Amino acid sequence: MVEKSQSTGLWPSFYEPLRNFGTRVAEWLSPASDASASDDAYRISVELPGVSEKDIDISVHDGVVTVKGEKSQEHQEEGDTWFFSERQYGAFSRTFRLPADADGDKIEAGLKDGVLTLSVPKRTPQSPEARKIKISKG
């Protein structure tokens, strides 16, 4: 007789490969990206081949930039004796936390050759001015 324990029973090991399936699918649908900085701006590039501008939504809230959209790509090839069809569909979302000196109100976006590029200008550092504090009597 086989004894099942909670840690070594048949069901936990059977379901183990499926435990993070949703996360793996989300990572597969998440577009590749990279970020860089120059003296005056931050640049974020997101690979979105086959995604049209109308299917991309970019928002900024509380220092976080979110790029969301929908992939819907079809590819078909036909020959005399063969036929090939490939489809990719799914929603994607990527978020990027902006550094403290980034000006989220002035982000510019451009889409060229399947690459979305976000340009986030840096705020110019401002030296705080000294101010006098008046002493009240009392």
What does this structure look like?
By secondary structure, this protein is mainly beta. The chain has a domain at 31-121: Immunoglobulin-like, CATH 2.60.40.790. It is built from two helices and seven strands, in the order H-H-E-E-E-E-E-E-E. The strands form two sheets. A four-stranded antiparallel sheet has the order 1-2-7-6, with no helix packed on it. Strands 3-4-5 form a three-stranded antiparallel sheet, with no helix packed on it. The longest helix has 9 residues, at 21-29. The protein is elongated. 9% of the residues are buried. The mean pLDDT is 80.
Can you name the CATH architecture of the domain at 31-121? Sandwich
Uncertain regions: pLDDT < 50 for 5+ in a row?
Answer: none
Strand order of the largest sheet: 1-2-7-6
Annotation, overall tally of beta strands = 7
Total helices: the number is 2
CATH fold call of the domain at 31-121: Immunoglobulin-like
CATH class of the domain at 31-121: Mainly Beta
What is the helical fraction, as a range of percent? 10-25%
